[in-house]
Amino acid sequence: MADEGMTPWKDLALGCAMSEPGSSRRFNTGDWRSRRRPITDREKCIKCGLCWIICPDMAYTPDPEAEGYYKWDGYYCKGCGICIEECPKDAISWQEEKEEDKYGPACGS
Amino acid sequence: MGRRVGLEVSLACAEAVKLCNADVIAAYPITPQTHIVEHLAELVAEGHLDAEFVPVESEHSAMSACVGSAAAGARTFTSTSSQGLALMHEILFITSSLRLPIVMAVANRSLSAPISIWNDHSDIMAERDIGWVQTFAENGQEVLDLMIHAFKVGEDPRVNLPVAVNMDGFILTHVIEPMVMPDQAEVDAYLPPYKPSQWLNPAQPISLGMVGVPEVYTEAKKANLVALEDSYPAIVEHWEGFAKAFGRSYQPIESHRTDGADTLFVTMGSLGETCMSAVDQMREDGRSVGQVRIRLWRPFPVDDFLAAIKGAKNLIVLDRALCPGILAGPVATELRALLYAKGVRPFVANFVAGLGGRDVTRTDFVAMLDKAEQAAADGQEITCQMVGVKE
Ligand code: SF4
Ligand code: SF4
Hints:
The complex is a heterodimer.
Chain A: E1 36-40, H1 50-54, E2 60-62, E3 70-72, H2 82-86, E4 92-96
Antiparallel strand pairs in A: 1-4, 2-3
Chain B: E1 3-8, H1 9-19, E2 24-27, H2 34-45, E3 52-55, H3 59-71, E4 76-80, H4 82-97, E5 103-108, H5 122-125, E6 133-136, H6 140-155, E7 163-168, E8 176-181, H7 184-190, H8 214-229, H9 232-246, E9 253-256, E10 263-267, H10 271-284, E11 289-294, E12 296-298, H11 302-309, E13 314-319, H12 330-342, E14 347-352, H13 362-378, E15 385-386
Parallel strand pairs in B: 2-3, 2-4, 4-5, 5-7, 6-7, 10-11, 10-13, 13-14, 14-15
Antiparallel strand pairs in B: 1-8, 6-12, 9-11
The structure holds iron/sulfur cluster (2 copies).
């Protein structure tokens, strides 16, 4: 696991240039999260979209199955807690999580 | 084959940039670099050089503008000195890491405080580790020649690195010297138009200056390290090509009367010429002395240096900058470490001379030789000894 995703130095592009657009989509910021995840109580949610706008890693996106709500993506959520702090209705709160189900479906609803 | 002219060295430096057909010049004036960029501004304003002159608000901006310009594929030049070079500091590393072949003339000057506009090497020695190719000139002709060579080296697709050409402030920049100014056709033949290896091309988009997470940073730095080491053959090759094209030859380490000499001075920059003249005099007086001059400072030409000092019993390493807290100047610190690692053990005396524009004369060199020979005989250390300091 130690060198997963690593590139030998000789294979790096000149000056570390990046020619592939959108490569940051593969960047697993969820790996930084530790032991807890934000969970949304949709009973309290007023669909204001602040969590969607404010999340620095775009972990919230409009939920195609529940109009107006936002679903959470554990691959990107780094666990900063900003959404919890900013939600005007205190609809988001921490929930303990185990390392093994870090990337499981977790949209609290 | 060129024409003989008498010209202020700063203007010659600017004329070299013109002969090299730079596309973009971004610079902020600072003594003693000012005449270089003033003259370039004139050349652009009067239509003699078809380039974009960006009059930025600081040296930090100058180097940043140069990064953008070089990334866009333009042949890019800047020049600075002292505090200006210090202000560029963070961008200098970015330039080499992004592999952008910017050329910079550094009119070497001391760092404040006290404020000093005069010459020493404390500005560039604080930037030793920026990952640029770095050369030192001893006179006006060399400034002119090394500038042309700098573009050729930096833009070589095997190199793709920025190059700094060091010239002592005032001692070189403000002196009118005789020199041979090459013809445009000669320079064009030596230095064809720049073909960047990659550039910010909308048809083939790339991103430069991305984040490097711990999984890639070490590899990125390894690539930078190797790139600078690997620039050596191209540097030498383009000096050989220069000698063929212009009839003046340069080597990474240059020797003067080293044959059979017990003691060798090691110099960089314009002090080299004073030293040469002192060595000639001392040879006439029967002293066993010679000199090696470091022309190529980065990448440091280890093998050339070892070959040049082979057989010498004593080295006198001159520094024009300090490494406070280690009691040896930067050049001596490096050379001692190098010699130790290579198992070569001459006696190394280290003098610091010519700080902040203090003159260093032929007599000073004789005194240094006397002291070094005595110390070697007595088994005494000489390190960071300041020449001419008033006690
Ligand atoms: S910030 Fe809170 S209320 Fe607003 S959409 Fe997100 S969870 Fe719902
Ligand atoms: S904890 Fe931070 S990263 Fe995770 S969803 Fe909330 S704002 Fe985004």
